[in-house]
């Protein structure tokens, strides 16, 4: 079965109710645009053979680029990818908020479990989200590959780089990493039926030199997420993902931005740069990776306790230095 048929079957499958509320790649529409371009190229070739290319080239697709096609193709694809990334982010955030609910909301959820299997419902929604992001990512990859084939260009590959720069490349979202941690925290990495329907999610010993989380998604897509902080070179603790996608310990990210741990990552100045890619303004939209933090707490309790004590000690030290400086300023030293 061709991917176009598979994608159409997915859109009209059991999860149709979910897809009605979310944007998806208009695969057939974009494919028709490329098919029209292919026809233009064929026409141009025939005209060149009959020595009448002078009148036809102005109306046909040019090699490497096609202005009429590009305007419809890349603009539409960029908007779709942005909407899909936004939908995935909001849905995963809502799911994880329910999973780690506190206070009255936690009490109400426990009460609901007397009547419904709330945990199973969350797991099912997570499965739907994994399929959603995977199928749309494959659709984008295939349509860009077809674009390059039709136009004999590398514009499709360049567009992938642009998507990554705009932080809308679907399979590089920190929310996908959070969803993988959610499944590990739910113990589903040990369930056989889960492996067959979803793929596979695994995480090696978090105390190793190179802790890694692996996601084997449908259609044999394998992803690896490095869980090492690039600053302290240890497993991330109280992890935050900056807007650029790089993940750091809270204490390390605060130190790099010259703010106190108690102030938090989002208190960093607007001019603060990512310690790795040096991009400016990435702290304001930092994401706290709560499921990844819980995974560390559950899988490596001794390391977690050690880091908690170290972070508290550093916070006390920073607080003392801050108030000493305030006192010196007040008395005129």
From TrEMBL:
Domain (SPX): residue spans on this chain: 1-161
Transferase listed as a keyword: yes
Descriptive protein name: RING-type E3 ubiquitin transferase
InterPro entries: BAH1, SPX_dom, Znf-RING_euk, Znf_RING, Znf_RING/FYVE/PHD, Znf_RING_CS
One Pfam match: zf-RING_UBOX
Any GO BP annotation: protein ubiquitination
Keywords: Metal-binding, Transferase, Ubl conjugation pathway, Zinc, Zinc-finger
Domain RING-type: 229-278
Reaction catalysed by this enzyme: S-ubiquitinyl-[E2 ubiquitin-conjugating enzyme]-L-cysteine + [acceptor protein]-L-lysine = [E2 ubiquitin-conjugating enzyme]-L-cysteine + N(6)-ubiquitinyl-[acceptor protein]-L-lysine
PANTHER family: E3 UBIQUITIN-PROTEIN LIGASE BAH1, E3 UBIQUITIN-PROTEIN LIGASE BAH1-LIKE-RELATED
Nucleotide-binding recorded as keyword: no
EC number: 2.3.2.27
Superkingdom of origin: Eukaryota
An annotated Gene Ontology molecular function: zinc ion binding
Pathway this chain belongs to: Protein modification; protein ubiquitination
């Amino acid at each position: 079965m061709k991917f176009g048929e598979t994608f159409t079957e997915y859109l009209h499958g059991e999860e149709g109710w979910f897809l009605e509320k979310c944007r998806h790649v208009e695969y057939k529409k974009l494919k028709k645009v490329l098919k029209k371009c292919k026809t233009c190229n064929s026409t141009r070739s025939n005209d060149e053979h009959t020595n009448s290319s002078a009148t036809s080239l102005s109306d046909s697709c040019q090699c490497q680029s096609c202005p009429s096609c590009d305007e419809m193709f890349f603009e539409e694809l960029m908007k779709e990818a942005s909407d899909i990334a936004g939908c995935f982010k909001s849905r995963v955030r809502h799911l994880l908020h329910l999973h780690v609910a506190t206070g009255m909301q936690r009490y109400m959820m426990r009460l609901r479990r007397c009547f419904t299997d709330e945990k199973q419902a969350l797991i099912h929604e997570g499965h739907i989200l994994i399929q959603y992001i995977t199928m749309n990512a494959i659709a984008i990859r295939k349509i860009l590959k077809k674009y390059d084939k039709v136009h004999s260009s590398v514009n499709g590959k360049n567009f992938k780089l642009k998507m990554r720069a705009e932080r809308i490349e679907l399979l590089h979202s920190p929310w996908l990493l959070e969803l993988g941690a959610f499944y590990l925290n739910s113990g589903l990495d040990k369930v056989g039926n889960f492996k067959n329907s979803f793929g596979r999610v695994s995480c090696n010993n978090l105390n190793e030199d190179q802790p890694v989380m692996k996601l084997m998604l449908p259609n044999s897509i394998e992803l690896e997420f490095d869980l090492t902080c690039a600053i302290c070179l240890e497993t991330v603790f109280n992890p935050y993902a900056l807007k650029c996608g790089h993940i750091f310990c809270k204490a390390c990210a605060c130190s790099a931005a010259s703010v106190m741990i108690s102030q938090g990552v989002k208190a960093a100045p607007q001019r603060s740069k990512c310690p790795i890619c040096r991009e400016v303004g990435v702290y304001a939209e930092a994401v706290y990776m709560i499921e990844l933090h819980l995974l560390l707490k559950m899988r490596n309790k001794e390391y977690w306790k050690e880091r908690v004590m170290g972070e508290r000690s550093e916070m006390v030290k920073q607080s003392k230095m801050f108030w000493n400086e305030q006192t010196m300023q007040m008395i005129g030293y």
